[in-house]
Amino acid sequence: MLEAKDITKTFTSEGVATPALRGVSLTVGAGEFVSIVGRSGSGKTTFLNVLSTLLAPDGGEVLYGGENVTAFSPERLNRLRNRDFAVVFQFHYLLPYLTARENVLLPFMTGLGRVGSRERARAEDCLERVGLAGKGGKLPGHLSGGEQQRVAIARALVKDSKILFADEPTGNLDKTTGESVMSLLTDLKRDGLSIVMVTHDESYARRADRVVRMADGLVAGDA
User: What secondary structure letter does DSSP report for 192?
Assistant: First the structure.
């Protein structure tokens, strides 16, 4: 479903070049849950950003459905992200003055047209799917940290994405709340969603189908 081939990426600061990825390859199957672990600076978040097309690699290819998405025009990339890819970050980035329902509807608010009843029904379905039925009218400040992250996941799913990229989705949560988010991700995987997750927590990483270990910009192990 998703394949990365020999991905390289170097960042330059004040004239000093630092390789972040040194030829990383990975294949993610349909409906597979893959976790990426490694120490700070190992390249795992950079790799996730390349996989999700948020960051262009210096070399190598990212293939999705057999097509090289690294060669897509900006317009085609935007359509791909809008249709098939979804990203959840460590911080939920909810707008505090919008309700949970309105935050989930944000991906539909890209033009001047009104959000229709079909989109609103889809938002309610996604809130129910993440365990927040009946809480769509609450502002983020009236939700717990775990509930806010669930709203962010519902927002990522509202357009029926095929792959969810999660960057430390439990990193800003306590253990109990983080466990509830991991249980949700596991349930979504059972429903057929492909997930690629970066995490520093080994216990959460082992909940995935496969653990990919990175070190110094390279894949150090795959189990």
Answer: T
Contacts of 20 (CB under 8 A, 6+ apart): 9, 10, 11, 43, 46, 217
Q: Which domains does the chain have, with CATH numbers?
A: 1-84+167-173+194-223 (3.40.50.300)
Give the torsion sign (CA, 118, 122, 127, 128): positive
User: Do 11 and 24 meet the contact criterion of CB atoms below 8 Å apart?
Assistant: no
For 173, list phi and psi in degrees, rounded to 5: -120, 155
pLDDT above 70 (res 111):
no
CB atoms inside a 10 Å sphere around CB 93? 12
Burial 147-157, CB ≥16 within 10 A → b, else e: bbbbbbbbbbb
| This prediction's pTM | 0.86
**Taking 60 as the threshold, does the pLDDT of residue 113 lie above it?**
no
